[in-house]
TrEMBL record:
Belongs to the universal ribosomal protein uS4 family. Residues 23-47 are annotated as: Disordered. Part of the 30S ribosomal subunit. Contacts protein S5. The interaction surface between S4 and S5 is involved in control of translational fidelity. One of the primary rRNA binding proteins, it binds directly to 16S rRNA where it nucleates assembly of the body of the 30S subunit. With S5 and S12 plays an important role in translational accuracy. It comes from the Bacteria. Keywords: Ribonucleoprotein, Ribosomal protein, RNA-binding, rRNA-binding. Residues 92-156 form the RNA-binding S4 domain. This is Small ribosomal subunit protein uS4. Pfam families: Ribosomal_S4, S4. SUPFAM superfamilies: Alpha-L RNA-binding motif (SSF55174). GO terms for biological process: ribosomal small subunit biogenesis; translation.
Length: 201
């Protein structure tokens, strides 16, 4: 699956969840897209349910198929619960952390900021959205980019909700990755066990 660039509301309706943030279309049309969206739906097979959950996770985090498979392999090798390890690895991505810190309003916007070299990690410019952060890493807005309208606008409406694995310093426009997130603190509604079952087939 290539990175999705189509209508966001269609994906939200497909999964009946606000995948890319608040969706007016989902409230107006709370049924799947397409001409058969309102009709009686066939009972999903076990495989279909598992595949749907994997696709949902990929859309939420903006990860391609091969990247996702590689992350799952890494999660399995780490020991412990593979599904939880997978979500922790997804949350540890640089683009996701830029979004969580409120520097960007969406993960897609966060990805653009990283690609266009507006973000630094430990003082060095990093333009790889999939860069995996380690405990203690400092994520900051590049000095030249601190007045960028997209960043200041996002920070001005920054969600008051704090994530316990991140610290934010508003004066420095910098955040710190202080620990790996615990599963129960990750707000995404993903049933990671279904993804593990799918890859275990």
């Amino acid at each position: 699956m290539a990175r999705y660039t189509g209508p966001k509301s269609k994906i939200s309706r497909k999964f009946n969840e606000e995948i890319f943030g608040p969706s007016k279309a989902l409230k107006k049309k709370a049924y799947p897209p397409g001409q058969h969206g309102r009709g009686r739906r066939k009972k999903q097979s076990e495989y279909s349910i598992q595949l749907t959950e994997k696709q949902k996770a990929k859309y939420i985090y903006g990860v391609l198929e091969k990247q996702f498979a590689n992350l799952f392999e890494k999660a399995q090798r780490k020991g412990g619960i593979a599904g939880e390890n997978l979500l922790i690895l997804l949350e540890s991505r640089l683009d996701n952390t830029v979004y969580r810190l409120g520097i960007a309003p969406t993960r897609r916007a966060a990805r653009q900021l990283v690609l266009h070299k507006h973000i630094t990690v430990n003082g060095n410019i990093v333009n790889i959205p999939s860069y995996s952060l380690k405990v203690g890493d400092v994520i900051a807005v590049r000095e030249k980019s601190k007045s960028l309208e997209a960043i200041t606008a996002s920070l001005s409406v920054r969600n008051a909700r704090q994530f316990s694995w991140l610290e934010w310093d508003a004066t420095e426009m910098a955040g710190k990755f202080i620990s790996a997130p615990q599963r129960d603190l990750i707000p995404e509604k993903i049933q990671e066990q279904l993804i593990v079952e799918l890859y275990s087939k």
